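Troubleshooting log. The previous structure file for this entry was overwritten by mistake, so regenerating from the original sequence record. Sequence copied from the archived sheet and checked twice against the printout by T.R.
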Amino acid sequence: MPPIHDYVIANQNGANTRSDLNNAFSAIVSNNSSATAPTTTYAYMLWADTANDLLKQRNAANSAWISILTLSTGSVTTSAVSLSTAQEWTSQQNFNATTLTFDATQDWNLSANQVCKLTLTANTTFDAPTNQVDGSVYVITIIQDGTGSRTAGWNTVFKWAGGTAPTLTTDASAKDVFTFVSDGTNMNNVAQVLDVK
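Regenerated output below.
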């Protein structure tokens, strides 16, 4: 394991200076990897805390360590992103679109399928989706198979403008896109685009 270094190069002879520099570089490239915290710290300094499997960074005041991510998985820790603070992203964020498996009484697990598509191979009726989260937006693209003329019914948790669900486009391979906002109990339709070409 690389030595913990204070990043102060002492006045010393050439060989000792070179050894000191090599130790400092070793600490840098390993992110100060150690089971114990460095005793000499600096604002924004990194520490790979091997005892707790965490990459930590010193705060701006150099008064505490902030956990950034898990070393073994690279997963960001909750302390690195505060859910109670507005975040500004500089790159696109998205949910990977998924594909639902057709079912005559259609299941829709929202925790795993926030943005998804479903190809109808027969008529279906949607069950109440599972794992609704109040305020979340859910999008589904419904696609007719090569035969077309498939219909969809909807559980009563799906709410529509005027109380009536739109009729699906039934041409072969037709696509209809539906967007819902959940209130935690109901799936409130806020937009639909029918016969997307």
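The helical segments are 14-29. Archived copy saved in two places this time.
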